[in-house]
Amino acid sequence: MLPSVSLLDSFQASQFSVILAIYLVAITAEAMSGALVAGQRDMDIFGVAVIAFVTALGGGTIRDMVLGHYPIGWTQHPEYVYLVISAGLLTTLVARYMHHLKRVFLLLDAMGLIAFSLIGCSVALELNYPPVVVVLSGMLTGISGGILRDVLCNQVPVVFRRELYASVSLTVCLLFLGLSALDVDYNVSTAVCFATGLALRMAAIRFQWRLPVFSYQQRWED
Amino acid sequence: MLPSVSLLDSFQASQFSVILAIYLVAITAEAMSGALVAGQRDMDIFGVAVIAFVTALGGGTIRDMVLGHYPIGWTQHPEYVYLVISAGLLTTLVARYMHHLKRVFLLLDAMGLIAFSLIGCSVALELNYPPVVVVLSGMLTGISGGILRDVLCNQVPVVFRRELYASVSLTVCLLFLGLSALDVDYNVSTAVCFATGLALRMAAIRFQWRLPVFSYQQRWED
Amino acid sequence: MLPSVSLLDSFQASQFSVILAIYLVAITAEAMSGALVAGQRDMDIFGVAVIAFVTALGGGTIRDMVLGHYPIGWTQHPEYVYLVISAGLLTTLVARYMHHLKRVFLLLDAMGLIAFSLIGCSVALELNYPPVVVVLSGMLTGISGGILRDVLCNQVPVVFRRELYASVSLTVCLLFLGLSALDVDYNVSTAVCFATGLALRMAAIRFQWRLPVFSYQQRWED
């Protein structure tokens, strides 16, 4: 469940294409998971395509809108749009077999979360935003696609309640920012972030680590 | 249920004012339908005004925010704001008689969907976005007002489940883009889009054409 | 329940720092109320932090995105981010004692609503938007943080249904715009807006003033 040595090696060989490859795998995996949630709401295939799109590309869209970073990424990469919509629609055909692949999906999803977080940090860094905004940009990119998916599917976002997920994004972003401040080589820092993030996420799933829950049953707003 | 010959004629005479007139009728109709959904949630008249506004002008707002197209349309046209809020509030007075007009409303709503789609395509074309973004911009303008309305009213967006609606927008956008690429006269192409879109939407309502539904009952995310 | 003479005095002495102080108190109070709503949904502390952030800073974020006003306020003030997240997390520790402070909270919330509204109007005025957009910008700043909170907590926004709240924002915005047009001194006009807004809001809570409700039980959309 940890990144293999060959993955770490290839980062050093060619960081750019590796991050891109992980990104493409990640948006595909996110699109497929979005399609499954849409299917739980009995949506038609148009709804499936929208939810797949929003789950995969919504996080980056919200980040770019908040940071004023135009044009938004996918508008310059039509191939991403085709990829995520195809992945969403294809999912409707293969859904019945997908539970066999749940472990693979959790791994791809974790890699996506980390890739999204690092990309979000990089975008905010390039735009010279202050450190706290860099971290928030990374987290926004990592988790807000799933939040949008849940809002459109009329459920409380799972990210607010499940085992460590946003915390993985936060850890990765802080680590990345810290290593950047220390002038660590970009490839090394990226590899360290992936290794740490994947280890943390996989441990969280395995041991069901959760953040403390806040329950408040009095009515306050009305 | 199809656009009359005189409508097609007037397009050729004066495309601009006809599209504008249809747009004004459309945002009025959307505002009124928004108000009815707000009434199903027992909102007060402020809530009704907000939902009317969002249903009518929210699609264009989201499109402009995604495309980075500032200032957003209605901020330069205060009269649109007054129109949609008035229409929403007026609806609370005449709601009990509106079911007699349901057929008229479905027609106006279909015309609005097509007008919104064409306007959305045009905005993205002017900003030189690639074709897939032009189509998405048209669809975003056509359907996201209704999606916002449903999210604010705490229900799964109907557009993800009802008889052909977003598909009409998609068809119209693709047709418009295709005819533009073929250098067809703008007025002719607009008229063809309206005729095709209305025919498709009305047939979909009449014969209850729906897209295939994707049902997936296993829990995946949690 | 009305602003004391000393508050009005201090406005005249130093309008800027007073508005800023009220703003900081207001975002703290909004963050705390957001945290309580998150607790009603049994969210983990990450969810609490997000809802606190969104309730306190979401209104200004949406206003800036709609007006194309970049960079968004909190991205240039990391201290606001720390403040609202700390306030949200602290709330989980002191929640059981907070119902004793409900009256204080309602007062702080009302002051926040008015401060947000005035700030929203000022931002739109500086950007030379027309009067109706100035008023909408004030209202958007005042109420959309709470709307976002409710959407993320999967409930119909309370602002669409409770005793006069958005109407207080509307009154304050119109008053502010009217006094600006009459060239009334900024400090005087701010003080008048606070006095009027607080009086109206407190009376609305005390006497349970509500806007008329629109109930419509026929199904229309489907």
UniProtKB/TrEMBL annotation, chains A, B, C:
GO cellular component: plasma membrane
Regions that span the bilayer: 16-38, 45-68, 80-98, 105-125, 131-152, 164-182, 188-209
Occurrences of domain Glycine transporter (ranges): 22-95, 107-179
Main location: membrane
Keyword Transmembrane: yes
Membrane topology: Multi-pass membrane protein
Protein's cellular compartments: Cell membrane
Keyword annotations: Cell membrane, Membrane, Transmembrane, Transmembrane helix
Domain of life: Bacteria
InterPro entries assigned to the protein according to its UniProt record, in alphabetical order: Gly_transporter
The keyword Protein transport appears for this protein: no
Family listed: Belongs to the UPF0126 family.
Name of this chain's protein: Uncharacterized membrane protein YeiH
Taxonomic source organism: Paracidovorax wautersii
Lineage, uppermost ranks: Bacteria, Pseudomonadati, Pseudomonadota, Betaproteobacteria, Burkholderiales
